[in-house]
Amino acid sequence: MTSLATGLACIDCGAPLPLDYVLECPACQGLLELRYDGETIARGGPSVFTGDGLWRYAAVLPIADPAHRVSLGEGQTPLLECPRLGRRLGVRRLVVKFEGANPTGTVKDRTSATAVGGALQFGFPAVSVVSSGNAGSSIAAYSARAGLRSLVFCYEHSSAPKMLHMAATASDLVIYKGVYDDLITLWDRLATEHLFFDGGASRNPYKHEGKKTIAYEIAEQLGWEAPDVVVAPAAVGETFIATHRGFAEMERWGLIPRRPLMAAAQAARANTIVTAWRDKAPLVPLKIGYTVAEGLAAGNPGRKGDWVLRILRETDGVAGEAEDEEILEAQRLLAREEGIWAGPTGSASLAVLVRLLADKLVDPEATICVIVSETGLKTEAPPPAVTPMSFDAESLRRLVLQKLGTPARPSAG
Ligand SMILES: [Zn+2]
Q1: How far is the CA of 29 from the centre of ligand 1 (A)?
Q2: Which residues contact residue 129 at a Cβ distance below 8 angstroms, ignoring those fewer than 6 apart?
Q3: How far is the CA of 303 from the centre of ligand 1 (A)?
Q4: Reduced to 3 states, what is the DSSP secondary structure of residue 89?
Q5: What is the reported pLDDT for 412?
Q6: How far lies 173's CA from each of 136, 153, 162, in Å?
Q7: Which residues of 319-351 are buried (b: 16+ CB within 10 A; e: fewer)?
Q8: pLDDT digits (tens, 9 = 90+) for 151-174
Q9: What pTM was computed for the model?
Q10: CA of residue 200 to ligand 1 center, whole Å
Q11: Are 169 and 140 in contact (CB under 8 A)?
């Protein structure tokens, strides 16, 4: 099925715009979102979705020409039932949407696919992004895949594996010193001059839209139903807003019976949205320092942060935060209880769920879906402190028996 996008609309004043490359409303500078031919989708139901991966949902994405559908095999990530972890947390049914299974190990591959697709659609030769690591390597990989240039600005403290990945895939990699929010402000102005296609998270509706497919996949994986609760990470707010948008569209078009309760997850050291939500107050930007969840280190979510707050207030959603130690504990739990190896940024949503359960903001009898946004394979940390050992046949046998005990199964041979 081809794209059923019909235009853009301002989220603030509602002004309609054609499907051009525009980053904000010319009338009020509001952010823009895509509009679709909902009637055709409602009539066709799930049959409008054909093929595999992210582009299965091409009907609800804004890339018109199938030749512009850039792909490295993103999407169709597993929705993992987590019974052991669920029991441990006292949750009746816990599922994890594991976005670390994407080609560059992050949920950002979804937005890179539609961002680079958008760059092709509008004839841009280069895409640029300011990144703490994951977005940079993802945009660079997808740009390379499409034969476009990429100009990636990467945080000097990004992990070595992320840096290595960026250096390998980006046509131009610039390491920046200083605070992410400060560089974003300068860079955003150049994006407005159209010196490159905007691969950033703050405005571009074409890029943003790719992440909506998480919601479509979760619903389809549950037999066209939504979970009761979805916990999504919120730095600038792209994943949270897009996931909500996906579920809201599906409800409107009759693809699912009802939307989930949305929970926004932040790191306690970058908790502007949670604070504003809790205090029922406007968003106040925060100068932030280090958090282990480097992908959540946004102290000024800007207008997208306001958009997240609006969704939380209009839909009775909830928000929560977790300290670095809680995030690292959630990372260990995912790995040990379910074999899911996520980075701290990806584990933060689980850590926040633990808090939301303790604060009774989420019902443990609900079906809860946690979006784990990245793999742990790109995390940099010292290896565990263990002393290497050497063995002969007898000492090896002794160690195995000591670790595993006498076998409960019938003996070999
Ligand atoms: Zn407007």
Answers
A1: 6
A2: 135, 136, 139, 150, 152, 153, 199, 200
A3: 13
A4: helix
A5: 61
A6: 9, 6, 12
A7: bbbbebebbbbbbebbeebbebbbbbbbbbbbb
A8: 999 988 888 998 999 999 999 999
A9: 0.95
A10: 21
A11: yes
